[in-house]
Amino acid sequence: xxxxxxxxxxxxxxxxxxxxxxxxxxxxxxxxxxxxxxxxxxxxxxxxxxxxxxxxxxxxxxxxxxxxxxxxxxxxxxxxxxxxxxxxxxxxxxxxxxxxxxxxxxxxxxxxxxx
Amino acid sequence: xxxxxxxxxxxxxxxxxxxxxxxxxxxxxxxxxxxxxxxxxxxxxxxxxxxxxxxxxxxxxxxxxxxxxxxxxxxxxxxxxxxxxxxxxxxxxxxxxxxxxxxxxxxxxx
Lengths: 115, 110
Hints:
Distance between the termini of chain A: 36 Å
Largest interface: A-B, 25 and 24 residues
Number of helices of chain A: 0
Oligomer: heterodimer
Order of helices and strands of chain A: EEEEEEEEEEEEE
Strand content of chain A: over 45%
Order of helices and strands of chain B: EEEEEEEEEEE
Radius of gyration of chain A: 13 Å
């Protein structure tokens, strides 16, 4: 089944304790991205990647890191989480053909609470 | 930061009625506009990707139109059913970024 797999689904952590949220897709998509969803603010793009070893900042990258060492994986790293990073996070991927972008396939989301 | 505006924020519609809502985006440097459907406790699912001015897309009772010159897209739902209750998101491609509006929350009343 074509899918984007995110783990974990739920995570409660303490301020300052490094964590990684994993994202993997099995559709050979070039484009992958992370979003956070906060009430009243909608989905905001954190980072995106056009392909292996190519990553760039979205609109809210502060406090996050990403890497794209393999095409299928795009982990989100919080080196020193803070309470304002408490949010619902989505990973998403899509194919790119030339200059055409197609609709995203989303992961099932990770609800992160930082206390 | 680029703004993608959706209106209304929330909408209550009687079952069987038709409805529509709007996504507004910058009309310059247009690449593509996406529509997504997001049910509670699930992940957003792609409905349409629209790239050309005047595009019309249809999927069952849901259709969308695109006007890139004036910077808006309409999503239409004909004969609303309870299963149409969801948040409808539009997303605008700005260079290599994909920027979402805040969505229109649709409630279907029995």
